[in-house]
């Protein structure tokens, strides 16, 4: 079962990326983002595409320009995530046939992203807006447009975010920090997956 959880592997190295990503997939998280400001971020993305591209949605984060999009597309990755709402990046992503998830915070940014063709929205930093803020945004956003809460969502509050209208989550340091072993990431991933499944129960 594919869950709408994106593991954000900020700061990971190419040598760490494959065992950590394998651990995530085995634990039930099959959407993986390597931010481009990680050491040799593109190399990590390329390795994960080769190793897991048939079993997971692999992508890059902190994608800030159309040039970045072109480099990501060349790896075979399918997902582009940004911290901001840049219509040029969204357009380049869609033109390359990739999934676009730009970062948004305000209604103006949300609708700018929608008009530019975003596939989903990354509410960031979600902790500042909170579930109540998302609930207010959800009153005006298209119901069929997925919203991912990123920054501030975790095992303890997934249910609050889901009630507020979050469709999915981007999870960073709660899963991975530089130097954390694949075994520890796997344990954290299993705990998170169990919490997500509980939050999905009727």
Automatic annotation (TrEMBL):
Keywords: Carbohydrate metabolism, Lyase
A Pfam match: Aldolase
InterPro entries: Aldlse_KDPG_KHG, Aldolase_TIM, KDPG/KHG_AS_2
Known pathway: Carbohydrate acid metabolism
A GO term, aspect molecular function: lyase activity
Subunit and partners: Homotrimer.
Similarity annotation: Belongs to the KHG/KDPG aldolase family.
Protein's name according to its UniProt entry: 2-keto-3-deoxy-phosphogalactonate aldolase
Organism: Cereibacter azotoformans
């Amino acid at each position: 079962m594919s869950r709408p959880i994106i593991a954000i592997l900020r700061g990971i190295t190419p040598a760490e990326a494959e065992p950590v990503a394998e651990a995530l997939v085995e634990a039930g998280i099959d959407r993986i983002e390597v931010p481009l400001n990680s050491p040799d971020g593109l190399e990590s993305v390329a390795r994960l595409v080769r190793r897991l591209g048939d079993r997971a949605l692999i992508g890059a984060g902190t994608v800030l320009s159309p040039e970045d999009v072109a480099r990501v597309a060349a790896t075979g990755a399918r997902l582009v995530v940004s911290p901001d709402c840049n219509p040029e990046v969204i357009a380049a992503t869609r033109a390359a046939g990739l999934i676009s998830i730009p970062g948004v915070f305000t209604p103006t940014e949300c609708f700018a992203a929608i008009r530019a063709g975003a596939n989903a929205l990354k509410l960031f930093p979600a902790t500042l807006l909170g579930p109540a803020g998302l609930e207010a945004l959800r009153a005006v956003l298209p119901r069929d447009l997925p919203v991912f809460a990123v920054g501030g969502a975790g095992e303890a509050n997934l249910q609050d975010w889901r009630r507020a209208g979050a469709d999915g989550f981007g999870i960073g340091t709660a899963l991975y920090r530089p130097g954390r072993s694949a075994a520890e990431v796997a344990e954290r991933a299993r705990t998170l997956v169990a919490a997500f499944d509980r939050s999905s129960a009727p």
